[in-house]
Every structure is written in C-alpha cells, then in structure tokens.
C-alpha cells in the first residue's frame, strides 16, 4: 500500500483502526477461551521478544512496501502486510535462537492476524486506485471499477475472504483443542497466507524482479518454505517425545 495524503486514506485509516480493534478483541477472546498457555510462553520469553517482533514488523513492512513501489516505478513510502509478517518472523526467530527458546510461540497471534487481514483489506478495496493494491484488468463478472473505468480483479477481497475462511477453520480447531493445530497453527497460518498471497500477486500490476515474479512473490515463497520446514520439524519433535 502506498502512503499518500489523498482523501481515500480516510477510509483506509478507519478500516485500519477497525482491523486493529477487531484483532485485539479476537486475541483477548481466544486467550481467555483456550490459549492462556500460549500467551504464557510469550510472557516467559521476556520483554525483548515483543521488541524483536515489533522492530521486525516495522522494518519488514515499510522496507518491503517502499522497495516494491520503487521497483514499480512509483515514488513515496509504502508498507506491506506480508513484509511486516516476514520481518516479525525474522526478528522473533533470531531472538529465540539467541535465547535458546524452542517450539512455536506464535499461536496466540493466529486469529488476530487472520482477523486483521480479513477486515483491513476492505479498507484497501474501498480506497480506490490511490492505495495501489488493486488488481489487473479482468472480464470476469465480479471485476470492479476502482475509478478509472477499467474493470479489475478485486484482489483485496480475494485475500479478505481467504483469511476469513481460514479464521473460521482455526477457531473450530482451537475450540476442539486439536493437538496438531495447537502445535503448528502459527505455521499453518503463515503457509495459507503466503500461499494465497503468492497466487494473487500474479493479478497485480507491480514491477517484476525476475520473469513474471515481483518482490512479494519471493517474500511469499520464502514464507512458504519456512512454514513447511517448521511444520516438519515440529512434527518430528512431537514424534520423538510421544510415548
């Protein structure tokens, strides 16, 4: 998303605030409902766990968003959800490695992240062309005119609906205390988000880096590889400790 002073940012800011509140509320709900033990793992990791997470998210979000604009021939600063996710993961994993912390600590964030994307992407959709998150032209019946008379893929809504569906499934599995999801839920969320985002990137008019692939393709590809490796590692560790 490009950061600019156009009037459309009022709508986007409103949805950003709603998304943040909804994500916070969802975190409190799942914490009190099922995941107090997951939050305890983060509390035991220390204050600098949060510092590493926030610093990584800020650097990754603004760094990737701005670089993508530059690669697309656009001026200004930008921020990216997938960049923030990748940065936060990098910051936390480095911190965990330094402190010798093993196992997943991200389960408490799963419902919040999915909620934030499901709600926040509507702000991108309603902000029009100025947001720079619209899709390429399409003749499909659900194409949307973002203000220039061209029917385009509403890729923001593709992302919103996908993560809303994931959220429903995640809440069901958390409610059932599904053993696999309690161990691997964060990595599953990363896999689903990065995988679907990789596909939607083919429907965006961003500048490419190599062949048909833009910057976000490579970030998403890295996140997919990370999540698959971590799911496999977690599964292997569970098999070793299983009586």
Can you characterise this structure?
The protein is mainly α and 243 residues long. It has one domain. The chain is 71% helix and 4% strand. It is built from seven helices and four strands; from the N terminus they run ααααββααββα. Strands 1-2 form a two-stranded antiparallel ribbon. A hairpin with a 2-residue loop joins strand 3 and strand 4. The N and C termini lie far apart (49 Å).
Summarize the structure.
It is built from seven helices and four strands, in the order H-H-H-H-E-E-H-H-E-E-H.
List the helices and strands and how they pair.
Blueprint: H1 8-45, H2 47-71, H3 81-99, H4 107-126, E1 144-145, E2 151-152, H5 155-175, H6 179-200, E3 208-210, E4 213-214, H7 215-241
Total number of strands:
4
Our measurement of the CA-to-CA distance between the termini, rounded to an integer number of angstroms, reads 49 Å
Enumerate the strands of the largest sheet in spatial order, edge to edge or round the barrel: 1-2
Mean pLDDT: 90
Report the principal-axis shape: globular
Strand content: under 5%
Query: What composes the largest sheet?
Result: 2 strands, antiparallel
- Unreliable segments (pLDDT under 50, ≥5 consecutive)? 1-6
Structural class: mainly alpha
Could you tell me the radius of gyration in angstroms?
18 Å
Helix content: over 70%
Treating each run of at least 4 consecutive H or I residues as one helix, how many helices?
A: 7
């Amino acid at each position: 998303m490009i950061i600019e002073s156009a009037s459309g940012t009022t709508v986007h800011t409103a949805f950003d605030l709603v998304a943040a509140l909804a994500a916070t509320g969802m975190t409190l709900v799942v914490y009190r409902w099922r995941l107090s033990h997951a939050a305890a793992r983060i509390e035991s990791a220390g204050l600098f766990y949060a510092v590493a997470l926030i610093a990584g998210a800020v650097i990754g979000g603004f760094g990737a968003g701005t670089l993508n604009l530059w690669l697309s021939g656009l001026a200004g600063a930008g921020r990216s959800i997938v960049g923030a996710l990748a940065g936060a993961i990098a910051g936390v994993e480095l911190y965990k490695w330094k402190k010798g912390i093993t196992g997943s600590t991200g389960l408490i964030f799963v419902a919040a992240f999915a909620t934030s994307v499901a709600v926040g992407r509507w702000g991108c959709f309603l902000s029009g062309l100025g947001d720079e998150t619209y899709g390429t032209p399409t003749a499909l019946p659900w194409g949307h005119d973002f203000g220039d008379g061209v029917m385009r893929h509403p890729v923001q809504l593709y992302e919103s609906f996908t993560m809303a569906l994931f959220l429903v499934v995640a809440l069901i599995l958390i409610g059932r205390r599904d053993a696999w999801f309690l161990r691997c839920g964060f990595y599953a969320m990363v896999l689903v988000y990065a995988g679907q985002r990789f596909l939607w990137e083919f429907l965006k008019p961003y500048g490419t880096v190599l062949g048909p692939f833009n910057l976000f393709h490579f970030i998403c590809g890295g996140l997919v590889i990370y999540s698959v490796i971590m799911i496999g590692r977690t599964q292997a560790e569970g098999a070793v400790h299983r009586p």
